[in-house]
Amino acid sequence: MRTERKVVRRLVVLAAASAALFIGAMPAQADNGPHVSTATNEVKSGIKISDAGQGRCASCHRAHTAKSAYLLNAASEEDLCLSCHGGSGTGATTDVQNGVGYDSSATTYYPDGKTVLTVKRGTQVGALRGGGFEQAMLGTDSATKDTYLYTYADGRVAYRSKNQLIPPAAAPKGTTSSHFGGVGIMWGNGSLSGTVNVGLDMSTTTTGKLECSSCHDPHGNKQYRILKPVPSDSGFATVIPGNTQPGVFIKDTANKVYTTTNYWIAGDPAALADTGTTTTLGATSITDPTPKATTGTTTVSSFQANVAAWCTTCHTRYLAPRSSWKTNSGDAVFTYRHTGDNINGDAASNRNCIQCHVAHGSNAAMPNSAVENPGDTALSTDSRLLRVDDRGVCVMCHNV
Asked: Which PROSITE patterns match (predicted)?
């Protein structure tokens, strides 16, 4: 679940948006502030320019004195995003460099009275749900769970797990994996194939390098964390039934909470009330990972219902239904796969991408469990964005 080093140095911080979830909602994030959509992209007469957010443009752009492409008022997209979402950023309460969330002690608004211009960071309120690109606050060495005896309908008795907890760390720690860096491969991108193909090589291309705007729309799109339905260069072209355009759409939320008190809770309970749905996206079959909408009985947030499919717009072959652990997919590299599309609720213990991995960066340590990259034989201690030390995410569910 990583697209790595050179290529991602710039996904950095617009991703601040996607990071987060649980503890107190905060203003001026990437899906608010100058990124907020002001409904000018619609057929409408007599739009009042002051209400359309005319002051937002100069936050990021200069018409005649820009310092980089796209008329950016910074040397690079990364620098621009970090000016708000970095460790010393002045435009947002989310510090995605270090995985820390703050409240705001003061805000300034544009003339429309609604769009935030600047934010002064106040008290640290928690750890960002998606970790951080350079440092993160996952308590990866402090994870716990309870076990209990469960009796199945056929009379079998077995131990099961509950009350899993991954607390935030007391302070940020250096990341051991992030979408900030790696070997430059979009792992699993492409169709299932009997020919060895580990994914899309992005390390040698300049047009395909990962930027913040590869995953996020800086101008707002009314989607969850302003995520693009089709990330740049993913190649995803499927129009899912019910939609008119390609991509995976995740409904935006009124209640935006970016921090967490338990990293095992991977859904978005704060969004459940206003985006609840029983329609979820999973793999079409073991041999066809194309997302397909299904209707269940459990109500979950739009985020939980769609996030696994959204991750696999890039990491295509990772989306797998149950029984994929024992059935050959036909792919030469991603042959047998853990279930990746199971959704039981927003709390925890789902079998999908976001349950085991964080979006931005993890500080998990892997000193005793080095594993090879897909299609390779050399061992690596890279933590793969996992939430617990030494592949402990497995033991969070499985009693072995």
From this structure: ASP_PROTEASE (PS00141)
Tokens linked to 393: 């995410």
Residue 395 and residue 388: Cα distance in Å, rounded? Answer: 9
pLDDT per position as a tens digit, 288-305 = 999 999 998 889 999 999
Could you give the CA distance from residue 331 to residue 386 in angstroms, rounded to a whole number?
A: 24
Contact criterion met (CB below 8 Å) for 302 and 251: yes
Find out whether 118 and 83 touch, Cβ atoms under 8 Å: no
Helix segments in the chain, DSSP class H: 5-8, 57-60, 77-85, 212-215, 269-275, 302-311, 353-356, 393-397
Please choose, from the candidates 363, 304, 349, the residue with its C-alpha nearest in 3D space to the C-alpha of residue 131. 363
Q: Which helix (H) or strand (E) holds 280?
A: strand 277-285
> How much of the chain is helix, strand and coil, in % rounded to 5?
20, 30, 55
- Tell me the C-alpha distance between 218 and 57, whole Å: 11
C-beta atoms surrounding 148 within 10 Å: 9
Q: In whole angstroms, what is the distance from residue 144 CA to residue 153 CA?
A: 28
3-class DSSP assignment, residue 369: coil
229 and 249 in contact (C-beta within 8 Å)?
Answer: yes
Split at pLDDT 50, 70, 90, the class of 270 is confident
C-alpha dihedral, 194 to 199 to 204 to 206, nearest 10°: 130
The whole-angstrom separation of Cα 86 and Cα 80 is: 9
DSSP state, residue 373: P
Q: Which amino acid is at 128?
A: L
Q: Let me know: does 201 contact 338? Beta carbons within 8 Å.
A: no
Range in 151-160, 208-217, 318-327, 329-338 the model is least confident about:
208-217
